[in-house]
Amino acid sequence: MDVDIWAWVGGTQRELHEAGNAGLAVALGDVPAQALEGRYGQLDVVAPAIAQQAEVLGKPWLELFARYWHMIGRVGDRANGAVALDDARQLFEFAQRDDVRECPAASVAVEALAMAQANTDGPGYADERLASVGAALDGMEPDSLAFPGLTTQYVAALLDAGKAGEAVTYAEAAVERLRAAGREASWELGAISAQALLADGRAEAALAALEAATGFKPDDPVAKARREALLRTAVLIELGRMDEAVEALPDLDVVGEHPREWVEWARTVAKLAGSGSIANSWQLGRVLRQWLAYFETMGGHRARVELALAAGDLAVARQGLWQARMLADLAEAALADLRTTEGLPERIAALRAAVDAAPLLPAPGPQEELVAYFDAADGRTADPERWVGWLWPLSGRDLEATRRHTTTLGFLGFPGTGADIYWKMIAVDGDPATAAEEDLAYLTGLLIEANQDERVEELAARLPERHSHLALARLHRARERWPETAAEAEQAVAAGATVEGRRLWSGAVQQLGDNAKGAEIMLPLLDSDEAEEEDTWRIIVLATAAENWPAVRTAAAKLGMPIQSAEGPIEEEWHLVRAILPAPDGSQREVLAVRTGPATARLAIPQPRGVDYNAGDVIVIDPRPLEPVPEDPQERESFVIPFAGVTMLRPGGYTSWFFDGAAPSEEEWTEFNELLAERGWPMWVYSDENYQVTHPATGEQLPGVFGWIAVPPAVTPAELDAVLDDATEQWVHPLAWLDLAREVGIEVERHERISKEYGL
């Protein structure tokens, strides 16, 4: 992006503020941070909303800005491939419009498209990327902020085209152009230069280039440390410095949430596995299979092949031969989605040859005793990957072995294979109508996980009524079809599927917004020996939301939880909690509250305008703590348990009013707090110690304070204004409460003057 883009963002924010679109203005400034910091829940809500509003307001530059950062959030760290291609192309076409192409951000739409293409099939789209990115760079001066990013994409395309030497030359020339223009290369450009040197067989030079780039400013500062460590590991491996490479390798928990790094990390680990310093375990194999499934969903076709091959090499090394064979099959299946497959069939064939040459691990006992051995194995230390191989000869013939084999296959990430075996035994070679209930449950679960929905429907058609409706209800729930789930589960209950049927039915009607009916459906389980403690808690939550207090008391008594009152709403004073609630920008807010019952809490902290809840509101909470209570006694003393908010139960009707200004003395502030507390008006400071205001006479910076005061419905704005006026009258520096003053029409000019003089 050109340097002017950020000035444009600031100007657009001011325009939006002046036009009364304060929420949009604030959200606009946060979108790039959401994309780079991985706050994708917010980004996926906020960015499309901004783009939609920008279209309504007739601001195409603003729309481009929001759509671009949303796309970067998808094709960057999340490595979306084919699923993002059409959207990336539409963004590119949008940037070519007459009313958009002069936008400082327009040139980087090609960057987003190139990244989506690289994620889909880097070598297959290499020529297309070189053409489009090259056209964007043609005539672009190095003083453009878009220059380093586009150059990085051009070098990446050269590498995918197999032109490592040309990539080195191009990257080094770009760095020199930037230096001549008085600019420093981005860290990403320095890193891709090192990567090009490594691909060109110049590992020593690559290490030097990487070290030289370490001080460069990154475009993505959040990702720099892990990406740099991963590249350093790859270089050290090529230099034969294995101990240092192992030391440099970022841990699995560091890269585990960042799909962009998965393929390179897996390749690197596969190379290090032979050193004995890397734990090559079934757990690693399971993680890599999950990653592979992610790329199957996101259309990362090249990543699917590369990850399957790396995971296959690791599986051979730990003698998980059945898994290596299946990974070879997955890699081969992905070839059909690639534009070019040069060298890949040979690598797949080499993996298969390695599997064929590897010795089989002997089973721990005779085949007829393997089920008993499996059941006797220590669940913490047993290797499920090996058990899959040992049980395979029995699977599909022996029912007990099949149950264990297929469910273990599903656990390790191969539900489709397990479902095929189980399906043949139960539905092809046998009659599912006579199958045991646990077999139907296992088989249905595997079919759903393997996305074999047609088979679930076929199975249901061949089952007795109770099992038929239950199977379909499970399928509909997995696909989030709530009306269908409720209908099938209700019929399952009518046919005798009491416990699971009621759970499915109740959960579906709750999703449809009917808590009262959800509670009513679950209530019969209070007298059931099959119900579990979790069912009782669920009844408490649903009955609380429906204000069915007799049911809440009955369920609480079953849990041995004392309730002081005998009837009516439960409104007691228990203990402080942290209520985790949704924020307008798609994130979550943590609000201090007082727990007032088994599943209720009263919010204690004033919230800014625009939030759907406030101090005094009573909410329903999920009584399952979101964090464990610390074991350390000292930590436990100050620990406040967090609970997820479920729904609003009873609004308190409080209204929040904003205050801002220079911080008073400690004595003044204490008196102010006590005054508000006596009146029962919650107040909360939202500023931190870094917030400062300007002294109107000297211009020096003063500690500042801003926050919100909430008042109940019986308190008028005029009453609050009068109390604040009296309380702060003698302060050296006045507070401002401009919105409140405008509401009551008193001394508006004074508050405007305070805001202006103190730079509030």
General description of the model:
With 760 residues, this protein is an alpha+beta fold. It contains 36 helices and ten strands. Strands 1-2-3-4-5 form a five-stranded mixed beta barrel. Strands 6, 7, 8, 9 and 10 form a five-stranded antiparallel sheet that branches. Helix 6 runs parallel beside helix 8 (146-160). It starts with a helix and ends with a helix. The model has no long low-confidence stretch (mean pLDDT 91).
How would you concisely characterize the structure shown here?
This is Tetratricopeptide repeat protein. With 760 residues, the protein is an alpha+beta fold.
List keywords for this structure.
Tetratricopeptide repeat protein; alpha+beta; 36 helices; 5-stranded antiparallel beta sheet; 10 strands; 8% strand; 5-stranded mixed barrel; 760 residues
